[in-house]
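Kindly draft a polypeptide, keeping tokens residue-aligned:

***
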Amino acid sequence: MELRLDEVNRELGAITRILSRIPDDAPNTPPLLICLANAHYKRFVLRNEPDDIQKVIEYTSVVLSRTPDKDPGLPDRLSDKEDMGKAIEYKSLALELMPEGHPSLPRQLANLAKLLVNLAEHNEPIPDTLNRTFHSVDRELSEMAAQGTTHSGCTAVTAFLRLEDAEGKPVADTHGPYRRVLYTANAGDARAVLCRGGKAVRLTYDHKGSDKQEAKRIVDAGGFVLNNRVNGVLAVTRSLGDSAMKEFVVGSPYTTETELSEDDEFIIFACDGLWDVADDQAAVDLVRKSANSAQDAAKVLLDHALSSFSMDNVSVLVVKFLPVK
């Protein structure tokens, strides 16, 4: 069955509220938010039966996010198995978005319908679509800043998992031959790390003032980097929003395309609150040594960050891949 885009928008909004625990009348998003949502759109059908999704990922992965004691006003976020079960009803297109920024950011940043619409309306390579989507959100936030609605910004990491044939075209039937292809995009220092045979493989790029290439780009644009901060202010060199710095802090994402293999065990999505106190391999090792489920894995990493006195907000999403049969 094919849903109209207005129906998709409505259903995705409902799922987003379920998973992030945001009430309908909440004016702002939390500083850190991860959403996992699903929808059905004919052009990008991935799975047609509820059990098909289990062939791709362990779908009881959860979102855990916590703010250090310095900002105790924000509640923890936890999506449980029951809620994930509700989301499975809207299977077929798996999208993950983790924006990190300020509490004044509008709900639009967590609106996965925007990304879905872009994916559905244009027949183009997924990396191009992700790039265009990041720029679209960035422009929207700049327009809101011009209207005085918000002047905030955020980093973001997103992933899109698709079943494809040998020619890179999407497939809807998992009974035939297919490849699992994972596309990622990020702007800023929110990171995605894949565990491949026990080894950490970073799928994203940290856009920071301490990076030589990014620092050169800032200087070439007429800015400067002081104490690893853009114009002495912002630590990240790419973000969505931050309109006051937009001449230097761009929204262009870094994108990757990875064909998953039998050696790929899981992927970790997290913000710098985790990576400030754990490198990629350490995070992978923690998950492999002490966590059986994706939910346990997210909690292990969250607890590690907090016990290591991370000074930033911490949000973690772990997705485990099931063996290919």
Observations:
- Residues 1-97, 102-113 have pLDDT under 50 and may be disordered.
- The domain at 5-207+253-321 is CATH 3.60.40.10 (Phosphatase 2c; domain 1).
